[in-house]
């Protein structure tokens, strides 16, 4: 039997669900929904389409990756959107947690693959919500406009079944493939995330500046200046 703990409802540094602006956003988009399932569905679509997907702005500093900071930015990559949805869920009393997986995007833009020097995207973010006695996975990453651009069916969420990336696009071409798992977390594991980024994409980090330097709570940042 599946269950949840108080840690899945409590605010954290990153999932700061008690922030007044997060609470206001969540309550606004829940609307007249009464059940956890209906509330979760409304929040999913609010984050999927109202919080634009942008993979090029990699938020890594602690103060940048709180749900309230992300709300002010109004856009982010899949991890940002997963954190934001998790906070919105907790703000209205729905238990939430985060899951991370490595994915291979078969139709990703050449620009992005060139930037990463890989077609494997490490630490893809997924939100898990506890609804009607079970954990349900949902993926609010790609907004419907982006899906139309890449000829991919937008991911829907009914609050009952897992909503994960499609294996094929509308033309039956390979789209997204899950190739690795990092596990489930009650809060955003930022130090682990940064370590995975450095391991997978070392060219994005300036080691001459970072050598021996601890920045932002002991975690090196991309292109960080020595202070």
Short overview:
This protein is an alpha+beta fold and 227 residues long. It contains eight helices and six strands, in the order ααβαβαβαββαβαα.
Element pattern in H and E: HHEHEHEHEEHEHH
Q: How many structural units, i.e. domains?
A: 1
Largest sheet: 4 strands, antiparallel
Distance between the termini: 51 Å
Low-confidence stretches: 209-215, 217-227
Model description:
The chain has helices spanning 20-30, 36-50, 67-73, 78-91, 110-116, 144-149, 190-200, 207-210; strands at 52-53, 75-76, 96-105, 120-131, 134-138, 176-185. It has 227 residues and is α+β, with helices and mostly antiparallel strands. The chain has one domain: C8orf32 fold. The strands form 2 sheets. Strands 5-4-3-6 form a 4-stranded antiparallel sheet. α3 (67-73) links the parallel β1 (52-53) and β2. α2 (36-50) packs antiparallel against α4 (78-91) and α3 (67-73) crosses α4 (78-91). The chain is globular. 33% of the residues are buried. Mean pLDDT is 87; it is low at 209-215 and 217-227.
